[in-house]
Amino acid sequence: MPDKFTVLTPELHRYLVEHGARQDELLRRLAAEMAELGGIAIMQISPEQGALMNLLVRAIGARRALELGTFTGYSAICIARGLPDDGLLVTCDVSEEWASIARRYFEEAGVAERIDLRLGPALDTVRAMPGGEPFDFAFIDADKVGYLDYYEETLRLLRPGGLAMIDNVLRGGRVVEPDLDDEGDRVVLELNERIAADERVEVAMLGVSDGVTLVLRR
Ligand code: DHB
Ligand code: MG
Questions:
Q1: How many domains does the chain have?
Q2: Residue with CA closest to ligand 1 atom 3
Q3: Which of these, 4, 19, 140, 210, is most buried using a 10 Å CB contact count?
Q4: Which residue, among 173, 166, 174, 158, has the nearest Cα to 194 in the 3D structure?
Q5: Which domain holds residue 112?
Q6: Could you write out the three-class secondary structure of the chain?
Q7: What is the CATH number of the domain that holds 162?
Q8: Global pTM?
Q9: Is 1 part of any domain?
Q10: In DSSP terms, which residues pair with 60 in a beta bridge?
Q11: In angstroms, what is the span from residue 129 Cα to ligand 1's centroid?
Q12: For residues 16, 20, 25 and 31, what is the CA-based torsion angle, rounded to 10 degrees?
């Protein structure tokens, strides 16, 4: 095996989800409900990514978490389940339609009291936040065009030693062959370059799902 990575086939992916993701009945049901809506389900995180997020939130003992891009709540539930009973997740989305599905599952998962779901553009939500009550964990997954701003605002709101995960950093593999007419591709490419050289953070880009970058604020 000359390469330092194992390319995932659908069978290998199924194997790792079955052995390492512990997707419970509620998350399975949420994923199935999204799958019924068709292609939009692509925006939902994968089970193994949810497991990773839950584990990271617990590992750093996070009490306050921030999420940009709630969609229908799968990732928020994975984060919130890793928080203590008196922990807080602030999550935001522009879609009332998605948020209403998310709220339903937050209630059912028993994490609704830990989640503050704010409707509106992610940038408005984070810009309105004072830096005085920093977050321990953040997940950036809203519209890709806003990623440069989301990254800067997130770093401002993250405590030293705080951890952020950025979703979709491989853009379906297009980072090595970008569609320069696609603003999302251009912005994510730019952000990846900036993070690689950003002295404020430790960085690890992982080939999980569509690629996630972990940054630890120094
Ligand atoms: C899209 C957005 C996401 O956050 C994602 O994980 C996958 C796809 C999209 O906008 O297509
Ligand atoms: Mg995403």
A1: 1
A2: 43
A3: 140
A4: 166
A5: 10-217
A6: CCCCCCCCCHHHHHHHHHHHCCCCHHHHHHHHHHHHCCHHHHHCCCHHHHHHHHHHHHHCCCCEEEEECCCCCHHHHHHHHHCCCCCEEEEEECCHHHHHHHHHHHHHHCCHHHEEEEECCHHHHHHCCCCCCCEEEEEECCCHHHHHHHHHHHHHHEEEEEEEEEECCCHHHHHHCCCCCCHHHHHHHHHHHHHHCCCCEEEEEECCCCCEEEEEEC
A7: 3.40.50.150
A8: 0.97
A9: no
A10: none
A11: 25
A12: -50
Closest Cα to atom 8 of ligand 1? 43
Residue 98 lies in a domain: yes
CB of 137 closer than 8 Å to CB of 89: no
Tally of CB atoms within 10 A around 2: 3
2 domain-assigned? no
Residue nearest to atom 6 of ligand 1 (CA): 43
Q: Quote the pLDDT of residue 105.
A: 98
Tell me the per-residue pLDDT of 143-198, one tens digit each, with 9 for 90 and over: 999 999 999 999 999 999 999 999 999 999 999 998 989 999 999 999 999 999 99
Tokens of 191: 């952000």
Strand pairing partners for 215?
Answer: 164, 203
Residue 5 lies inside a defined structural domain of this protein: no
